[in-house]
Structures
1.
Amino acid sequence: MIRFAIIGAGRIGQVHARAVAAHPEATLTLVYDAFEAPAKALAEARGARYTLDIDEVYNAADVDAVIIGSPTAMHVEHILGSVRVGKRVLCEKPVALDMAEAVRCMEELGDEARRVMLGFNRRFDPSFAEINARVADGEIGQLQQLTVTSRDPQGPPAEYVAGSGGIFKDMTIHDFDMVRFFLGDIVEVSAFGTNADEAIKAAGDFDQAMVLLRNADGALATIVNSRTCAYGYDQRLEAFGADGALNAENLTATSVRKASATQTQAQGPVLDFFLSRYEAAYSRELDAFIAAVVEDREISPNIVDGVEALRLAEAATQSAREGRTVRL
Ligand SMILES: NC(=O)c1ccc[n+]([C@@H]2O[C@H](COP(=O)([O-])OP(=O)(O)OC[C@H]3O[C@@H](n4cnc5c(N)ncnc54)[C@H](O)[C@@H]3O)[C@@H](O)[C@H]2O)c1
């Protein structure tokens, strides 16, 4: 049984607490947050104790592993603090708000980096994972183009945007990791950003973005992002190769379709947001983390994946701001 502490009892902390509760080899013993209300609510809901003192997490003898869902600016401090006292870590994306901090984290971790997993949960989505495995098996021949579509149902609150690092580091980071999952290292990035949401514009961030990337073999990827989407959480992927294509479409609660005199193929709404759409991915992510901890082996995705996704986010930010392609 792996005994977990959760740092940060917000949206994603609650998602992880649910996955831990559902896992037969995991139990939640402690919740830490900077504020009492979220810490207490999550701890009480999951039968754990809570603390407002981070040292209690580090010193807890009944905590083997820590899940970090604190605001991004706190990730490096929480990773280093947990690893220093011998805990295993599953940390949410992105590693940090800038490359210098992420690289410092990687360097300070040294060999202990093997104890840290990065929360790129979409690699564990059953559909995306299957496409990745089938591409690797050569089923569609040489991979030539990857299209990743990711649109949120509604924008985050302004205070979240302010501390998020911007759309490329906060949102597109998942898609940068997905592109690396399929195409490996990227050599060119061209990004465009624009605004349809006045509140996000006022916060100094883009709410719509498109990014074009190329790897050293010449394979291309396109990422399509929007912070808002009228029909819900739009999460699709297409891998296009010399011998065919593999597609993952949006998921709905059931597969029921309606046909009538005025329409065909009408379906219920798409799953509403990350908690429901990626529920299986978070649970498979936790499975992979626990298996690596139990077998004491390398964890993937790791800190290098976190740093490299952030490198792409910084390149995209520069590209969109300066109106030019960035070569890596
Ligand atoms: N993988 C995913 O699908 C996914 C989804 C959402 C968020 N995230 C990531 O998770 C992190 C948290 O995002 P969220 O949406 O849950 O935010 P949130 O604002 O809902 O929750 C953050 C929580 O951290 C607490 N907090 C504030 N300062 C703190 C501190 N110094 N130490 C510890 N806790 C502190 C807040 O009180 C709050 O409870 C971000 O890094 C975000 O990028 C990942």
2.
Amino acid sequence: MYKVPLVKNTFLQEEETKKALSKFVLDARILSMGAECCKFEESFAAYQGRNRAVLFNSGGSANLALLQALKNMGKLKDEDLIGFSAVTWSTNTMPIIQLGMVPVALDCSRETLNVEPEELERCLKDHPLKALFITNALGFAGDLDAIRDICRERGIILLEDNCESLGSELKGTKLGNFGLASTFSFFVSHHMSTIEGGMICTDDLELTAMLKLVRANGWDRNLEEEEKNTIRAKYRVQSELDAKYTFYDLGYNLRPTEITGFLGQQQLAHLPGSILKRQDNYLRVERAIKSNPDLLTLKRDHLTVLSNFAIPILCKTPELRGKYGEKLERGGVEIRPLIAGNIQRQPFYGKYVPKSRELKGADFIHRCGLYCGNHPDYRQEELSILEDILGGGK
Ligand SMILES: Cc1ncc(COP(=O)(O)O)c(C=O)c1O
């Protein structure tokens, strides 16, 4: 048993949530996707400040659905070059390959863990990207204002994988509100949990309708009446009976359940408070990191809110990473690599993508990065363990 585990519990306000969940399940008649999911979508869209939110059964599903929807709409095509942050999660990159497009990894800065505008400019010199599916890593972000401007100028579709940065703000704008759409994860170790779950936010109504179609088999049952009428007229579907079993475009079954929708609403109520607590934890541990010449301090002065569920640790050398990895484990702190390192170095990437880019920042993060958890209910003892070790003691 770790004294400071990566995942401490399943929910924000664990006991209260489990009690409420038990009652909800006992009282519910049908638990497949329905009213609770819609209510969560509405409240999440309002929280994020976006027109629409579409709920999925995971963050990875949300990523897959987003790219599939853009292909169905003709905005992306086979062989299109899709840029992505080299330091990311497998299921950010995999759907690019699965859907027949070409992934192009962009380097991530060791100062912010993220793609910066200079790297985007560099990459565009020999890679005419159709879309950039950027990851906002571990609550941090690059200069998204400048990245958005470059994308606008060049007609590149900007998408944000915000699965790790729900609640972070850059100069007062929530991460996830810089591009056409953004994805979120509600897996247990994330900012709030529906056990498994994911979301896509966007202001684009046409994309919203296509996402609902992709989420459920390619049929139109979850679309608004007007949207149903439009698609039925386009394909000359006459009767309600036929419409129910007409499959208009490529889709999957990526539906959440009413449990996802119920839990999402419960958890969202606790989110703002937990973000502040996690931010306080990070700032405390950051003071220890700053005082330690073996570690690098990440740049965050452009972020007006820093919302992370983990504390990234960037050592100055791979040897120091080994040393701090051992010290943390010995001190009872559960650790892991920094996300998945440079994703180009993962076996699946080499198997399917013939050309990798040489990326110094992502390689540095791969060789020198670690992370431990950041929980809103850390006690003094848990924070002291982190402060002592990361401050260079023990
Ligand atoms: C950047 C990023 N994208 C996507 C995902 C996938 O989310 P999920 O685990 O809900 O499928 C994760 C999961 O940790 C992630 O970190």
3.
Amino acid sequence: MSLYTGLVSSVLFPLHEKLKKHDTLAIRKSLEQSQWLSADQLHDLQAKRLSAFVENIYRHVPYYRQVMEERQLTPADIQNAGDLRKLPFLSKNLIREHFEALKSDIAGPLNRFNTGGSSGQPLIFLLGNERVSHDVAEKWRATRWWGVDIGDREIVAWGSPIELGAQDKIRLARDKLFRSELIPAFDMTREKLLGFIERIRQVKPAMLFGYPSVFDLLAKTAEQNDIRMDNLGIRVAFVTSERLYPYQRENISRVFGCPVANGYGGRDAGFIAHECPQGGMHLSFEDIVVEIVDPQGTPLPPGQSGEIVVTHLGTSEFPFVRYRTGDIAALSDKACGCGRGLPMLESIEGRSTDFVVAADGTMMHGLALIYILRDMEGVDAFKITQESLQHTHVDLVVKTGLTDKMTQRVQDGFKARLGQGVDISVCEVSEIPAEKSGKYRYVVSKVAS
Ligand SMILES: [Zn+2]
């Protein structure tokens, strides 16, 4: 028996078998073993799971049966992540169009889930138990990297009224697993913010979980009111769902006295990547195949930014295969200092709509504009809307009233980035409303999207 076969039979096969169990605890234990495998071993394990997954959906999911027959493919043609490009991308529109045909004929109970999405139409899809157990186990593994375990108290700040209304299984499973309390963080008035701060002080959670914008706002409010939050024993703030800006990380960390751990994922795409204490953005590699593709759909090598496309191997009951997330990132080919073999994302640059385009066509991250406003005295909140290449609009919430001098500074700073001929309008507003989804977007470009 070769060394490789020995490895497959002694390590990878048992791990694969354990990962097939739909029991969150067993999956979490198995993930905690596999995270220490080498990157090569993890690729083998992932390939093994991928090929079993493809076999399963070929047999039982009418849509994929048809897609593969049309392309004259059999499961044997898809043996590893590289072979996935033989299959088409899955978009929100295709899910809507083929909803019934995407259900496995051997699916167990499925729960309907509805995500608002940060833009566009809501997506309705189905979640099976297998997928829920894997998503919960992946999150559980990541919280344990930060010393937070099942049973530790957690405060969840969720901004979306849509998601709060949903009777979704992930939430129920999570609430059972974690002693979790929810802060409905939308339409936040000053009184509500102070109420949440008080609640966090009473609960003394081990972990905060939710939108970075919400915890940043809570941190700012606590600081303005001289309320200490760094003596509650909070071990980590897990942030997700929005881009985490460096200034938010710094504020949250300083005020709550804990590190900030960035996560990337969505209800639709799954728990895709999470930061370890050494700063590596590790993929949930055993469960999710990540491809980075250019605008033509061609997979890109590590180091090059493109759209994140995911194949979730726990979704055989309602498959997500090459699902386009609309988010931008690059894969890393580096190893992490923590010693885990789990491959990493190099950077997550946010949604394509977080970018703005200068008059000369240069794409730049909205952060370039955000920093101009962050540095200005008296600016409490803002929203930047790039209406066209020639016109960008800025809404500002200003503590002491907008002065001509401030307007001039915004216009000078923005023109320096976007082009001298660009018209910059500045308007004072009393508040910046959240998007319909409940998320805050600080930069909206009608040009870049
Ligand atoms: Zn690491």
